[in-house]
């Protein structure tokens, strides 16, 4: 038991370092109300909860009704619950592996004073360079396309307020706006943005719910889903993507003053997110049914009103925030590659980060397919980044009896057996590989190719043809 005690002492010593920084900030606030510290410096468990909940549901809130039209009401609800809890479990695994990695490094007297730990570094420290390469490739690609999706969503949403400009032009404009996120140093500085972001998605979710119920069912509404396998698995992978915000979990943990308290934060965030996603998706699908198959953005079916315009504007602001959430880990990786990560100059880091934004901007213009790209990213990237790699990494990290005995974090109280943890992890790996990556990859790529065939690359205005035009009647699913 001595090695375990040493590990615990090491990690406490490490965490005291970040806790000390937090206490210094708290002393600043108590010495006189410091607005900068209040708005800018966030490292509490509440900040982490807001970050997880805000980051978990952004533009995907608008595509879930589209997924319900592909899955049907029952499957849509059950899969949200299933993937929500599965995602919470793998977020827990990531937090355990972070604590394990940090405790081992602290025993080697490694300091993280000016260094943000990232997921690929955790994999490298625990399992070696090949795992680092896999983690880096999947994580960076996922975050890249996650940022692309935010830009597409911005253009798609603003079009419902101002259609004098096409969606491609709006993408140019919002690409420039989102580039300003290079000035936000780290997740430690997202306190006020996370708080506001969650308020914005809460408003939008309940607007969708109430507006759909008030609107009532459209004449001749039909709820025929599920009727095609390709549509069913496309919808399922979009939900897989919904609860796959783990690409920034390690960075959010590292921004905490006491990272060891993160363990159940993601689950608590997911439970709140259920109160937003389930009612809104079910209500919109109940009201509009199969019409959603041709409208991947729920805003497109609801009548124009001040309430809808407010929801659109709030989602635009939130998507700017989520763009920053998705891009910040990419900024960190790029800073480490070019050797400026340790500098304290915000301006130097901001200039160094700008090349990261350019390919994101370009890809958003090439592939402006709002709903289908979510499913493709979910099947091909989220399946590995969020579910398969963390589960396999946990199994391999603790495969030896000595590693289990000296583990910095023991199995949770509700699943106290290592064998039970192995069974759960093995189930996740097999399920996600077969259903998520296999069937989901086939379905989402089939759907994605249909979008390219129908609209072409660099589409000027995806799914915004005027009523009566041939394109308006084209099958967009």
TrEMBL record:
- Where does it primarily localize? membrane
State the InterPro entries in the record.
AA_transpt_TM
The record's Gene Ontology biological-process terms are: amino acid transport
Entry's localization field: Membrane
Q: Which Pfam families match?
A: Aa_trans (PF01490)
Q: Which domain of life is it from?
A: Eukaryota
PANTHER family per the record? OS05G0424000 PROTEIN-RELATED (PTHR48017)
Write the protein's name.
Amino acid transporter transmembrane domain-containing protein
Can you name the source organism? Aristolochia fimbriata (White veined hardy Dutchman's pipe vine)
